Amino acid sequence: MADFRPIVGNILLGLLIFGMSSTVEFGHFKEQVKNFRAIATGCFLQFIVLPFLGFIVVKIANFEYYMGITLLIITSSPGGAYSNWFCSIFNADLALSVTMTAISTILSVAFLPFNVYVYSKATYSSEVLSSLDWTSLGISLAVVVVAIAAGLVVSLKCSNSERGAKIRDIANKFGNLAGLGLILFTSLAPEGGRITLDGREPIFYYGTIMPIALGLVCSIIISTLARLKKPERVTVAVECVYQNTGIAMTSCLALFPDKDEQLQALGVPFWYTGMQTVFVGCFCLVSWKAGWTKAPADTWNIFKVLLTSYEVAKNHDDENKQIESNEDNFTDTKATQRTETKGIVHANQSQVTPKDEETEAQDEETWRDNEEIETATNIAGNDDWFSDFLKVTKVKK
């Protein structure tokens, strides 16, 4: 009988990734394109630092290959969509978070298989790696690539219409349901029994969460050295360690043929998922009280902080200040224009009035002279020589 579990797992994984990538806002790329330093720092932490930390932890903890490879897949995966939710409610840089999630989803097409291959080869022997079903892992990665591409096409085509926004919203909801279904399915699907997290070796518990703790520390150090703004530091740290564990869950169902190994391996993404939520939540709380978020650190009303978007409030205040500034500038400009206009009119009047009075006097004198000439001409019998004589005499005067 054919094993249907990897097929169902890949279908749910494809829907999850499709729903996440279909929500990519291409407008955020235009808004954040000038923020190259923050984006470059986030990508460096996501695809260089965290996979390397996963490799170091696997080597030091000496994990069995089925647990170690699963952890390498997790640390090489793109960021989880719920990182945006954490950045939103704790008032980090949400626009940067959304952009980073979109970029990490796209870049994971190349970096995910590359990092898994390189660090697996560097950690385990060829005999161990040759015993694994890499074809099934390749199928899961192909599902991820196709789902990302399809989601990005839908997002691009539906980004500028109301109907498109509804389609993307529906795709996102299906993606969230698929993610929940994937968690439930992988927890119940293994033939070795239900996944349990109790009764394991201590190395499992603290070894699995070490990439999270080390990732947060490295993110703060590197983002501080990069001179990012404090809310940006919080965002890149969250994006670095909050991973999409659904890829690792599906890979476990297909990659490890032994059922006991599969059951042990599935405990890694389940434990990582719970612990990354705890670590990121505590980190955001500490960042808020340290004044690293956009929420005021001097308040203890955590419910107000979680329910208020201070980024939106700040933008609204900035818009009001800009409007008031524009109104003041407009008023000052109009007053200046009126003052300048009055000055020009006064100057023109002072220059034009004397000239007008002189012209009127000359016109009046000319009119009187013409009257005298006309009267004398009539008396002389309209003789032309007498009229000319009077004109010449007047000119000489």
TrEMBL record:
GO cellular component: membrane
Places the protein is found: Membrane
Repeat in keyword set: no
Gene3D superfamilies reported in the protein's UniProt record: 1.20.1530.20
TM helices/strands, residue ranges: 6-26, 38-57, 63-82, 94-114, 134-156, 177-197, 203-222
Annotated InterPro entries: BilAc:Na_symport/Acr3 (IPR002657), Bilac:Na_transpt (IPR004710), Na+/solute_symporter_sf (IPR038770)
Topological relation to the membrane, as annotated: Multi-pass membrane protein
Key words, A-Z: Membrane, Transmembrane, Transmembrane helix
Top-level taxonomic group: Eukaryota
Stretch list, region Disordered: 318-369
Main location: membrane
PANTHER family in alphabetical order: P3 PROTEIN-RELATED, SODIUM-BILE ACID COTRANSPORTER
Similarity comment: family membership: Belongs to the bile acid:sodium symporter (BASS) (TC 2.A.28) family.
The name this protein goes by in its record: SBF-domain-containing protein
Organism listed in the record: Chaetoceros tenuissimus
Taxonomic lineage: Eukaryota, Sar, Stramenopiles, Ochrophyta, Bacillariophyta
